[in-house]
Structures are given as C-alpha cells and as structure tokens.
Design a protein that fits this description.
The complex is a heterodimer of chains A (about 160) and B (about 775).
Chain A: E1 2-8, E2 11-17, H1 23-30, E3 49-52, E4 55-58, E5 71-73, H2 86-93, H3 103-116, H4 122-128, H5 140-154
Parallel strand pairs in A: 1-5
Antiparallel strand pairs in A: 1-2, 3-4, 3-5
Chain B: H1 15-19, E1 35-41, E2 47-53, H2 55-58, E3 63-68, H3 69-74, E4 106-107, E5 113-119, H4 122-130, E6 133-138, E7 164-171, H5 173-181, E8 185-193, E9 196-197, E10 205-211, E11 216-221, H6 226-235, E12 245-248, H7 264-276, E13 280-283, H8 286-292, E14 295-296, E15 299-307, E16 313-325, H9 333-336, H10 338-341, E17 352-361, H11 375-393, H12 397-404, E18 413-414, E19 420-421, H13 426-436, H14 442-451, E20 455-464, H15 472-477, E21 486-492, E22 498-502, H16 511-523, E23 530-533, H17 551-577, E24 585-588, E25 591-594, E26 600-602, H18 603-611, E27 625-630, E28 639-648, E29 655-665, H19 672-692, E30 723-726, H20 744-761, H21 772-782
Helix pairs in contact in B: 11-12, 11-20, 16-17, 19-20
The structure holds FE2/S2 (inorganic) cluster (2 copies).
C-alpha cells in the first residue's frame, strides 16, 4: 500500500492504494465519488473520462499513483452554485442522454473537445467523441448538445 | 393539450441526477460489511468437470467462502429456467435441459460458471479464483448454427438429442407449395442474421444482502423487471420466499433485453449473502459481459417468394436455423419462432406463408431477446427478399412494395400468421419517406458520386413490429409462463402532489417524465408535483417490467386507468363538498365543477378532503390512492418506411451513410423529444448490426470478439444525423393511441442499409456486418 494525494474538484484528498489501483477505482471506492463510471476493461468506452490538469483522460487507464499531485475534475465538480455547466445544460436541452451511464464521460470529453475546438463542425465533434461509446442515443442529440454548448461556452 | 401534457417536448426530470454524477446505479451502491464475488469460469467451450479443488482458494488471504454448484443444490436451490414452452412439430414442446446456477457435470460454453470465490476485497476474490483448480476433460464442441443438428455433432445435453431444442413449423405448407408450383417467378435468398452482443453500457451488477433479524433477502440488481426477477428466483429457484425477498433495480444503464433474464451471478449473490450472513457484491467486467450476457439474433436462413406476373406476392417459404446457445434462457425458443414468424407477413398481403425453424443448441453463450427480438430477423429476411423480388421482376423496390401493401382501408387486417393488424397506412408512410429522402433525385446524386469514383446506393425498408406485449391469454396459449399485463398505482398525497408507482422499469426510456405527462394531462396536476417510482418490489405493486416496447402501450394505459378511478372517486367527494349530485360534476384541467355553475374544487383540495374526511360522503373510503391493472386486447403494430442512402469507396470498401430518413407510425406521441431519441438509438443499433457488429466464435468455441477492441460498437463517427418524421394512424385497441417506439430503429435499419449497399454495388446480396473487407470483396467481384 502507498499513499496518494491529489486535488479532486478543488479539494485536497489522499488515500491508501495498492500499486495496481486504477484512478477510477480510487475515485469510486476510496472517495465514494461514483459519478465516474466503468464501462469496459480495455480503455475503449470513455465512461470513465475525467480531467487531469485540464485534459480529458480515461481514468481506467491511469494508476491512482500516477495522479499524484494532479488537479482532477470529475462530473461531480462541474456544476457551480447549483447551476449546471453549459455542457450539462446542453445535454439536457437536447436530450443528449438516455440511461445516463455514458453521460459523465461523454460530458467530460465534450468539454475538453470544445475547449480545444471552440467552433467544432459536426465531423469534428463526431471524430473527437470517437473514444466515448453510447449505446442509447445514436449520438445525434449528443452532437446537437455539443454544438449548443460550443455556442454558449464561446459566449 | 395541458401544458406539459401529452404531445409536449418536456425536458426530462431524470436528467439532473445523471448529468451531475448523482445517478444511483447498482455498482454505485455499497453495503456495510460487503464482500466481493468472483466467478470461476470455464476456459473451455465443452468439457467434463472431473473435480474441483477449492482448498488453496479457501486458504487464500481475505477469502471468506468458496462455493461450487453442488453447494447450492444441497441447499435446495433450483436451477435457471426457461419461461416458454413452445409446441413444435407433432405438438412436441421444446426441450428444456436443466441448468444449475454453477454447472456441476459439464461446462458448455466459454464462461460457464463453475465456482464462486467470495472475499473481503475484489482483488482478493480475483486472486482466490485463480487458485480454484478445476480438472476438466475437454470435449469436442459445436458452434455453427446450421451444423449443430448434423449427424456426429457433439451433444451438449442428454435431454436434447441432436442438439435440437425445438423443431418448429408454422403455416400452410400445402398452400405455399401449390403457389410456388404455379408461380410466374420465384425469388430466393440465403442470408445470415449475425449474432450480436447486446452491450448496454452499464455492465450487469448484483448485491445480495440478508437480514437475519427479519429473515429478509434484498437483491440490488441491474434489472429491467425486478418483480419478475423476484418471482423467478422465488418460485423456481427457492432463493427466498417472495414476501421475504426484495429486489431493487435502481438506475439501470441500458438493458436492450439483456437485463430481463435471470442470471447465475445474481442468484449466487442473493443465496450466498444468507449463507455467509454478509452482503455479497458482484459487478461484471466487460469481458465477462461479452462471454456471459445473453446474446441476440444468430439465424441462418433461406427464404423464397413466389410471384405472379404483376409482381404480387403469392407465397413465402422460410427455412431457418436459430442458435439458442448452450442453455435456454428465459424467452429463448419463443424469439426465433413466435416473435419472428408472426411478423413474416410484414406490410404485405402475401396470402400463404410457411416457416420451418430449427432451434439448436451450441457451445456458445445463451441467445435470447435483444432489442427487437425476432422482429429484426423477420424484417431483415423479408425486406431483403422483397428487394431480390423487385430485381427478379425488374420493378423499382418502391413499386413492388406498393403493389403488395395492405391498404389502409383493409384494416383491421388478419394476416396468415396469427396477427390482426389494427391500424396503419403503409402507402402514406412510404410516400412520405420517399419525399423526405428525395428518392426521385437519387439518380442525379448517383451520377454525381460516380464522377468522384464513388458508388452510391439507396435502400428501402418497410417494417412492421408487434409491440405492447402482450395480451395475457394470447401469450399463454402460445406457451408463455406468465401474463403480460401491466400495473399502476396513482397515489395522491394529502398536499395534492402525486406519486405514481409503475410496474414497468425505466433504464433510459424517460418514464419519469413521459409518465408524469400522462398525470398532468389526465389530472391537471403540474408536472413538477408528480413523481414516478419504479424498480423496487417493496415500493410498488407487482409489474411485469420493460421490454417489447410495452411500457407506454401497456403500462401507460394502466396509469390512465388508475387516473380514471381517481376522477370517479373525486367526483363523489366533490359532489358532497359542493352539495351537488355526483352526475352533475364535471372534471377538466384538474378541477371538479358543478355543470353550468362556477362552483368548483381543485383536485388538490379533493385529495386533502379525502385524507381529512371531516365532512365526507357516506360510504366512500378515505384516501385518494388507486391501482389499476391493464391487460391489452391486442399487440400494437408500429410500422414505417425507412430510406438509407450510402456512398461506398470501391477502393477501400468503406461505407458512409450519407442520408438516413425514417418515417414511423407510432400513433400518438406523448413526448416527441423522447420518441426521437428512441428512434435515433434504435437506428444506431440497427446500423451497428448492418455495418459493424458481429459476434464471432472460433471453431474451438473461443469467443473471438470478446472486447470492444474486437467487437465493433457504433461510435459517433460511424453514424450520420438522422431525418426522423412520422405518419401516425390511430390504433383501435390502445386507449392512449400509442404503439411503442423503442425497437423500431433496430428493426428497420439493417435491411435499409444492406439494400442500399447491394444497390450501390449491383450485387445480389452480402451478409452483415458489411465491414470494409466484405464490401471491398463484393465490389471487386462485381467489377
Ligand atoms: S472504463 Fe471504458 S474506457 Fe475507461
Ligand atoms: S445514454 Fe445510455 S449509454 Fe449513453
């Protein structure tokens, strides 16, 4: 066991982990932050995406120890003062979610996408979300949601 | 229309929790003192189990218990059951080989569980499972759908000679033969309906918990039908008596059929929790889901159509195999027979239809209902055969469909394969789909694409499905072990808000919103004052759950029927308070009014009066809380016409869907936003089957496509945006006028896509999934 410390959604946290403990396990099990999901075991589905120092990362593909000292943002850290983040709001407005299981990872990926491509066209959105699988929505409304959020986030 | 009532695009009430990380899925739940289970699974497709040595595992750090199949048997725990008895040729019902929760004698597919290790942590359980030493003798295996009943094939079960679980036929073969004998032309096709892994994004999960103080077992479970899970595990498996057994299906991350069934792992968790007197948690990883979740489809089929000189369909003959996998799951044999064959008339007047279906067992994961369940298979073979028929007759695919459509004025229409369609206007939906897709402009688009070296094709699919499952007497006569009614309880709280308990379950469909819209519409209660509760056997009355696009057509009607009872009782209370005759009370927009006066009482005031009955009509019970059970009179028959347009790069074989047009008849739309979402998701599922998804077993029974790396799920960049439109007709049998929409896309899309590819390449057929390799080879062969 080793001790790992990081900042999650603005709060300093630390915990005891095994060398093999994944970041997503640390979040879900040690911190009981279950908003971040696990949908696969091959780094394919993106249900586990969080932000590490501002970049989207698959938290199932990173050891907890690798996040030592990092600034981690999860789906739980997006809404501010009871107001949803524009991307969260856009997902609701456009019915960009159904069962909600892919949603946390999808929203985190989409925020990073817009941060890096402020005016993404449909093709860019679809290509950039290639690492997030959704079985429910057919992506149509997710694309619309990202387009709306890109407008609001761009101001 | 009430504000936020039927027809309004109300944003979903459930979204906030899902978008902020506050969803409560089974794996998010942890119980005090919880242990973790890891299943020991067979690495062989077919093997005799000689012995299982658990001693090393038992001694491993953190291991709490290790159990094998005999331990459950010794405890009186029954096996998993098939819920259907379908009568085949000569009246012989399907074989139902026994299945132990943990297999004892033999392993019959890769992943078949043989033991369970329970430990303090998941890692310790996994480490312990590595130490269970199973001595197997490997046996020859069989995986081929059309090879399992051949002489000399390895036998899976003593009870199933020739691996033939059911040899089934349906229809008038003499009439069909006679029509073929005199046909002007015959069209025929051989095709494979590819096996699919259902893959909801949330893997299955279960937590069993036992309270020795009350002798109660609780099971948190990824379930589409918690009451049915409880019933099966109580009545057939003796895990706990029904009244001492609570099944909670909290937020569930998609189901698509695969979370209907009772599985080994959840039975182990519920049983072992009592055995060790501690909670036991199991969560599938994706690799286990690929191996062990029930798969879908998997037919190998020959289909023929007899045509007259005008291109009218005279008769159809289908000869098919369907793969059941190693054990019969809950619906199993019914999917490839009843839910398949009874849709073979499609939208057409084909007077004679005959099908021969052999349901075989193989050394593969069990196959059962998956989004569409039988109807996608029927639609695919029929709509492919119709296109081949168009080719044989040299008719446009739209024209041959029009010549054979059942006409709107022929409704209700009795098909030769059981169903009576109650409504539909297939000419109208096709006309709209052709207009919306600019079918007439296709030739110009094709020519333009050819100038760029691309092959462009267009394909149609005119589908029908039977939803709103289902009239209990009808399914009973067909061999179902249960009825398929649905229930609802509408409870006014004393302050006037409403809690609705539904027996259906929402795992993405948005019931918390659309069902609340029904209450708003019928009772005039603001939508924010309505809460829909589902998924807990301790909270709501028995219900049959969600599958077969039944929640709104059956469960929704139960809700409005309960509303009617509320209104009837409310009238008595209002009449007394307003000092009027009950017959003079009218109810509208949430108000009880004495006809022709301004004397009125809001339903919230009536509710308060019902709970504080100081001044109250004689003989009326206090409280305002009504329950209704609805058994549908018929299936519902959503139908529509879809048009797919593709562009193919002949040098790479890549297929791009450049345009997809759907026109569907779902009857009344309660929440059009949610309906559109259901269509989109269904289309992605269907396009996934057509282009990307195919579950492959090697001849050695090993699962080749065992992860998202090998099994290609549709991703955002594989799909287009969709053009979705409607052409509603009114279903006679459904009091709400709704038909169900959750499966339509998955049913309609595969033939539309393949018809488009075949059209682009000028070939007769290619099998799904039409991967770049398949398409490239076909393009090269076609020249
Ligand atoms: S859990 Fe699937 S990519 Fe991380
Ligand atoms: S909303 Fe269910 S997987 Fe995306």
């Amino acid at each position: 066991m080793a001790t790992v410390s990081m900042t999650v959604n603005g709060q300093a946290v630390s915990g005891e982990v095994e060398g093999r403990t994944l970041l997503v396990q640390f979040l879900r099990e040690n911190l009981n932050m279950t908003g971040t999901h696990v949908g696969c075991d091959t780094s394919q589905c993106g249900a586990c995406v969080v932000h590490i120092n501002g970049d989207s990362m698959k938290s199932c593909t990173m050891l907890a120890l690798e996040a030592e000292g990092a600034q981690v943002t999860t789906i739980e850290g997006l809404a501010q003062g009871g107001e949803m983040h524009p991307m969260q709001q856009a997902f609701q407005d456009n019915h960009g979610l159904q069962c909600g299981f892919c949603t946390p990872g999808m929203v985190m990926s989409a925020i990073d996408l817009v941060a890096k491509n402020p005016n993404p066209d449909e093709t860019t959105i679809r290509e950039q979300l290639e690492g997030n699988i959704c079985r429910c929505t057919g992506y149509h409304n997710i694309v619309k949601a990202v387009q709306q959020a890109a407008k609001t986030m761009g101001g | 229309m009430a504000e936020n009532g039927i027809g309004a695009r109300v944003l979903r009430k459930e979204d906030n929790r899902f978008l902020t990380g506050k969803g409560n899925y089974t794996d998010d739940i942890n119980r005090p003192g919880q242990t973790y289970a890891c299943l020991v699974r067979s690495p062989h497709a077919h093997a005799t189990i000689n012995s299982i040595d658990i001693s090393a595992a038992k001694a491993a750090p953190g291991v709490v218990a290790v159990f094998v199949g005999q331990d459950l048997v010794d405890d009186g725990i029954g096996g998993l059951v098939c819920g259907m008895s379908v009568a085949g040729k000569g009246g012989e019902v399907n074989k139902a080989p026994p299945r132990n929760v943990l297999t004892i004698d033999k392993a019959r597919f890769v992943g078949d569980p043989v033991a369970v290790v329970i430990a303090e942590t998941l890692a310790q359980a996994k480490d312990g499972a590595e130490l269970v030493n199973v001595d197997y003798t490997e046996l020859a295996c069989v995986v081929a759908t059309d090879g399992a009943d051949k002489a000399g094939a390895p036998q899976l079960h003593e009870e199933v000679p020739n691996n033939l679980a059911l040899d089934w036929e349906f229809g008038d073969s003499a009439a069909v033969d006679a029509a073929f004998a005199t046909a002007h032309k015959v069209a025929e096709i051989e095709l494979i309906n590819n096996r699919m892994v259902t893959n909801p994004m949330e893997p299955r999960s279960a937590i069993g918990e036992y309270n020795s103080g009350t002798d109660e077992t609780t099971l948190y479970l990824t379930s589409q039908n918690p009451h049915v899970h409880r019933l099966v595990m109580s009545a057939f498996m003796a895990i706990a008596p029904e009244h001492k057994f609570r099944v909670v299906a909290p937020d569930v991350g998609g189901g698509f059929g695969s979370k209907i069934f009772t599985y080994n792992e959840e039975a182990v968790c519920a049983w072992a929790a009592k055995k060790i007197n501690r909670p036991v948690k199991w969560t599938s990883d994706r690799s286990e889901a690929f191996l062990c979740d029930a798969h879908g489809r998997d037919h190998v089929t020959k289909a023929e159509m007899a045509l007259d000189a005008d291109g009218k369909f005279l008769a159809m003959r289908v000869t098919s195999y369907s793969n059941m996998g190693a054990y019969l799951q809950l619906f199993s044999v019914s999917i490839s027979t009843l839910f398949h064959a009874f849709l073979l008339a499609g939208q057409y007047t084909t007077p004679a239809i005959y099908i021969d279906m052999k349901a075989v067992m193989t050394n593969t994961a069990p196959v059962d209902a998956a989004r569409g369940a039988g109807r996608p298979e029927a639609t695919y073979l029929l709509e492919r055969l119709v296109d081949v028929s168009a080719g044989v007759m040299d008719l446009d695919p739209a024209e041959i469909r029009r010549r054979n459509f059942i006409k709107a004025d022929q409704m209700p229409y009795v098909t030769p394969v059981v169903h009576t369609y109650d409504s539909g206007d297939y000419d109208a939906s096709l006309a709209k789909a052709l207009a919306n897709s600019d079918y007439d402009g296709f030739a110009a688009r094709k020519a333009e694409a050819e100038g760029r070296g691309m092959r462009r094709g267009i394909g149609l699919s005119a589908y029908i499905e039977a939803c709103g499952v289902a009239p209990s007497a009808a399914v009973g006569s067909l061999g179902a072990g249960v009825g398929l009614w649905e229930s609802a309880q509408v409870r006014f709280n004393p302050t006037g808000s409403v809690t609705v308990f539904t027996g259906t379950h929402s795992h993405g469909q948005g019931h918390e919103t659309s069902f609340a819209q029904l209450i708003t519409e019928r009772l005039g209660v603001p939508i924010e004052n309505v809460e829909v509760v589902h998924g807990d056997t301790d909270k709501g009355q028995f219900g049959m759950g969600t599958y077969g696009s039944r929640s709104l057509p059956v469960g929704g009607v139960a809700i409005v029927n309960a509303c009617d009872k509320i209104i009837a009782k409310g009238k008595k209370i209002a009449a007394h308070t307003l000092e009027a005759a009950e017959d003079d009370i009218e109810f509208a927009d949430g108000n009880f009014t004495v006809a022709g006066t301004d004397k009125t009482m809001n339903i919230a005031e009536v509710a308060f009066t019902a709970y504080v009955p100081h001044n109250y009509p004689e003989g009326v019970e206090p409280g305002l809380d009504e329950i209704a059970f609805f058994d549908p009179l018929n299936f519902s028959f959503p139908a529509g016409a879809h048009v797919c347009e593709v562009e193919i790069d002949p040098d790479t074989g890549t297929v791009e869907i450049v345009r997809y047009t759907a026109v569907d008849d779902f009857g009344t739309l309660v929440n059009p936003m949610i309906v559109e979402g259901q269509v989109h998701g269904g289309l992605a599922h269907g396009i996934g089957q057509a282009l990307l998804e195919g579950c492959v077993y090697g001849d050695d029974g090993q699962l080749v496509t065992g992860s998202f790396m090998d099994y290609c799920m549709p991703r955002a960049d594989n799909l287009p945006s969709f053009d979705v439109d409607y052409s509603p007709t009114v279903p006679e049998h459904n009091p709400l006028g709704v038909k169900g929409c959750g499966e339509a896309g998955a049913i309609a899309a595969p033939p539309a896509v393949i018809n488009a590819i075949v059209n682009a390449l000028g070939v007769k057929h290619l099998d799904m999934p039409a991967t770049p390799e398949v398409v490239w080879r076909a393009a090269q062969a076609a020249g």
